[in-house]
Amino acid sequence: MREVLALIPARGGSKGVPRKNLRTVGGRPLVARSIDHARASRSVTRVVVSTDDPEIAELARREGADVPFLRPVELAGDATLDLPVFQHALRWLADRESYRPELVVHLRPTSPFRDPARIDEAVARLAARPDADSLKSVHLAAQTPYKMWRVADGILEPLLAVEGAPEPYNLPRQELPRVVWQDGYVDVLRPRVLLEQGLMHGRRILAFEVDPDHIDIDDEDSLARAERRAAAGPEGPRSSRARFSS
Asked: Are 12 and 78 spatial neighbours (Cβ–Cβ below 8 Å)?
């Protein structure tokens, strides 16, 4: 059985939603919900929460996750990117425990609704594609960038071009290239890409499509929307099958 680490980054601070990772949806703290998703997955073999916050660490341990370290404060700022957080966790586990997973599943607490079977599907998809560096969940974009513009000295310049179409912004949306938006439902990563290439996702990223009604919590409005969805129940999986993979 392959070793698959679910890594849940959950720092204590947050500007948009104070103490966001401890806020509840359906009576469960957000970080606990992601732990639930990871533990229910058949492919995940270990669940680790990376946090700088002792309260989150204590909660995560009660919920069945490992918290083998507290994240350094310099990796817990508002501007901290995912890459150094994941590099720190993987290096710590390798150096202190000789633990080196084959794949890493990135589960953000800001995604409170997931089907664990989709996590398994995502892991299997990347495992079957040794030519790929990672997998990222996406959904159909609400707006097409082919109808977007830059402004330079008061003049509009099309953001994107379409070969053979001198005015793509005047075409019906159905005739424009299909565009998707990354959504944070689940990512699956190869440790060698993070540690050897110094990249989060690498250059060849598999697409894993989920429904556009996925909720990513980044403000009080989205938190309230998630609470309404949980209250409406049942929460069951709302994700469609992935429709493409390369």
From this structure: no
Beta strand pairing status for 180-189 and 134-140? antiparallel
Same domain, 164 and 195: no
- DSSP state at residue 71: P
Write out pLDDT tens, residues 136-166: 999 999 999 999 999 999 999 999 999 889 9
The sheet that has 46-50: what strands, in order across it?
Answer: 46-50, 4-9, 103-106, 180-189, 134-140, 205-209
And the tokens for 148?
A: 């977007």
Residue 215: enclosing H or E segment and its boundaries? none
Same domain assignment for residues 88 and 165: no
Distance CA 23, CA 222 (A): 12
Strand-pairing partners, residue 48, are: 7, 66
Do both 103 and 161 map to the same domain?
no
**Within a domain: residue 121?**
yes
